[in-house]
Amino acid sequence: MLLYLAIAKISTFNKIPMRYILAFFGFLFSGCATAQTGNVPKSIYDFKVEGLDGGTIDFSQFKGKRILIVNTASKCGFTKQYEGLEALYKEHSDKVVVIGFPANNFMSQEPGSNEEIAGFCQKNYGVTFPMAAKISVKGKEMAPIYRWLTNKDLNGLENSSVKWNFHKYVVDEQGKLVASFPSSTKPDAPELLKALGL
Predict the structure, then answer these.
(1) Would you list the DSSP string of 111-144?
(2) Which carries the bigger pLDDT value, residue 56 or residue 29?
(3) Which one has a higher pLDDT value, 196 or 36?
């Protein structure tokens, strides 16, 4: 309402027809939406991301499985969840794939290089599930896959934001986002297992 009154005032003061001003603002806001969703694949299966080891993680190979996506960090109070995530992956790898995305967005709790992160995960938790190269999960540098996960226009479920390390997203066997869980949700939590179809 306030925006409309402001536009009306501009129109009256500058003697510019209201329809032209409204069209301009419509273009302006549609440009913002495009910036949020532009260059982001429509399907989770179109994503190919760099792996922690330098290879490529191709999401199309996970068709028919549930996907658990987690932003990880090595110096966080939730870092011990690596153990539960690895146990989940080992026990249910025929139905579920876990993918870790190291990120340094929260209190610099993932400061290491890709090589250092890989060494930490292997040495301390024996991680065998796919780990992506270090990314950003928020802000202007947010990785495209996290734009998809957090934007309803792309994922079809909900708008969300990653509040801390070890936030969890669940994608079903058809590539649809079906649930998200906060960091405090443990890998063996009943509600998470249910979302994973276990």
Answers:
(1) -S-HHHHHHHHHHHH---S-BBPPB--SSTT--H
(2) 56
(3) 196
- String of b and e for 38-73 (b: at least 16 CB within 10 Å)? eebeeebbebebebbeeeebebeebeebbbbbbbbb
d(CA 94, CA 154): 27
Distant-in-sequence, close-in-space partners of 127: CB < 8 Å, separation ≥ 6: 82, 85, 86, 100, 121
Catalytic amino acids? 76
Beta strands 66-72 and 168-171 are antiparallel
From CA 137, how far away is CA 166, in angstroms rounded? Answer: 11
Angle at which helices 114-125 and 81-92 cross, to 10°: 80
Q: What is the pLDDT of residue 114?
A: 98
What pLDDT, in 10s, does the model give residues 113-139?
A: 999 999 999 999 999 999 999 999 999
**CA-CA distance, 122 to 180, in Å (whole number)?**
26
Distance CA 66, CA 38 (A): 26
Tokens 């708008």, residue located: 159
In sequence order, the β-bridge partners of residue 132 are 51
**Side-chain half-sphere CA neighbours of 166 within 13 A:** 20
**pLDDT in the model for residue 33:** 42
CA atoms of 105 and 71, how far apart (whole Å): 10
pTM for the whole thing?
Answer: 0.82
